[in-house]
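Schema walk-through. Below, the input block comes first and the output block second. Nothing else is stored per chain. Lengths vary across the set, and this one has 220 residues.
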Amino acid sequence: MRKLEQWVRSLSPTAEFIIVVGVAFALPIMSSLWISLGGEYEPGPVQFTEDDLHFIVLEEAMLLLLLGWFLRVRGWSVGHFAAYPSVRELAMAVGLTVVSAIVWVLPPLMLTSTDTGITSGGAGLSWPGALAVSIINPLFEELFLCAYMLPFLAKRSGPALAVAGSLLVRLSFHTYQGPVGLLSIGLLGLVFTTFYMRTQRLWPVLIAHGVLDFTALANA
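--- output ---
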């Protein structure tokens, strides 16, 4: 274990970035592309089962633990991610949630395509399952897409390319939601990444993302 930790500490920042982003998103990207390009995609809202929710929670919790250990060895701490909420952040979360909900529903409302691609709960989803996903999934995605990727890329390539890079990764593991769903995801990601770049506050993004997830999954 000591040798492994020494190796982790010896990695360059670029190697660290590739490992973190690769471990976090390689499997979701491959799964999404398999569905969308492998003939398994079906137009319409994406339906999740209870087993799907359990798998998401288990997978993302394990990856959070693994990458949490990796980043801790690398010298990261909770403070690096501005993860402690404040009353001001909770107030900001209300406004961000409203804006996020609007951009989330605009594409399917404005476009006449039957391929809405909007995620919804399948029959028989439990509220505890929906709540668990609505906590772990926003934490997993926004921790790495916003709090980790954006500062790293912005320091090296500037804020515009940082936002573009984060959006590209976000879209790449949501291709299974179809064209209209991807448009909603893209607009939502743009709101989240722009907000984080301007404020460096993660909690409002987590709350807004969680509310949208829970609303979609609970309204089966």
